[in-house]
Amino acid sequence: MNVTFIGAGPGAADLITLRGAKALAEASLVLYAGSLVSKDMLAHCRPEAEIHDTASMNLEEQIEQYRRAQKNGWKVARLHSGDPSIYGAISEQMRALDDLDIPYEVVPGVSSFTASAAVLKASLTRPEISQTIIITRSEGRASAVPEGESLASLAEHGASMAIFLSGAGLIKAIEELLTKLPPQTPAALVCKASWPQEKHHTGTLGTLLEGISPEEWRLSTMLLVGHALVNGEGAASRLYSPEYSHRFRKAARETAKV
User: Fold this and answer.
1) What is the average pLDDT score of the chain?
2) What's the rounded Cα separation, in Å, for the pair 242 and 235?
3) Among candidate residues 75, 71, 21, 11, the one with its CA nearest the CA of residue 48
4) Contact between residue 138 and residue 168 where contact means Cβ atoms under 8 Å apart
């Protein structure tokens, strides 16, 4: 018996990893966060698997499912949206599994922040613009943001920012960012990246709220901020430059000397 925490990816059923799909197909008991994970993902489950939506369960009710699986010797697949290590609430489950002496493993998944960049056909890192990505979230009722990690303090770095769970406090988040960043800073909203109802909206911090109703972006919305989002002209990476040598390729000028 073992539990496999699986990153389901951002939504589309074919964005789960091969390893994750295999673990899902082998599980006798499947727990998934129905409020965040698309039911299309359950197509990877075997027909006889017992499947439970954890959206209405508290932690103890979920642990009880692990106890049942332990008694029956079942393999368990626990599906989390995106990647389990980012806002996945898996640490408390792992502590309980340790107490029950139940082995577990984690299969990473495609995060919604990278899926959102893919929707925009944008890079989050660009030479001489930003080589750092700050992953954070807007403060919510379930979890407070530690002191020192406010959006304003993080924005001071000028790095690319991926702000999870931003929809419910969108106006406040933009107002806070504008205390440290200029209004012309590129920004974008992506809602439900890779889902059939996916939508996105681009602009700048100063214009992003124009022409939209914030209420329509409350759920499953990613806010991306930073100059790297704009695919304009700029310095290219030296990695593929003909003048750049590395262990697998000599620079063109060095090759010419041979």
Assistant:
1) 91
2) 15
3) 75
4) yes
Confirm if 24 and 75 have CB atoms less than 8 A apart.
no
Domains parsed from the chain with CATH numbers? 2-107 (3.40.1010.10), 112-229 (3.30.950.10)
In terms of Cα–Cα distance, which of 144, 166, 2 is closest to 72?
Answer: 2
| CA distances from residue 69 to 1, 28, 29, 72, 189 in whole angstroms, order as listed | 7, 8, 7, 5, 40
Q: Which residues contact 189 (CB under 8 A, 6 or more apart)?
A: 166, 167, 170, 200, 201, 202, 208, 212, 217, 221, 222, 223, 224
Integer Cα distance of 99 and 5 in angstroms = 17
Interior angle at CA 144, CA 107 and CA 135, nearest 5: 50
Sequence-distant (6+) residues with CB within 8 A of 147 are none
For residue 133, the SS3 value is strand
What is d(CA 12, CA 173) in angstroms, rounded to the nearest whole number?
28
Give pTM, 2 decimals: 0.87
Q: Residue 42 has what pLDDT?
A: 96
Dihedral sign of CA atoms 221, 226, 232, 235 in order: negative
- Rounded to an integer, the average pLDDT of 26-54 is 95
Lowest mean pLDDT among 47-61, 174-188, 227-241: 227-241
Residues 6+ apart with CB under 8 A from 35: 55
Residues 6+ apart with CB under 8 A from 218: 167, 168, 170
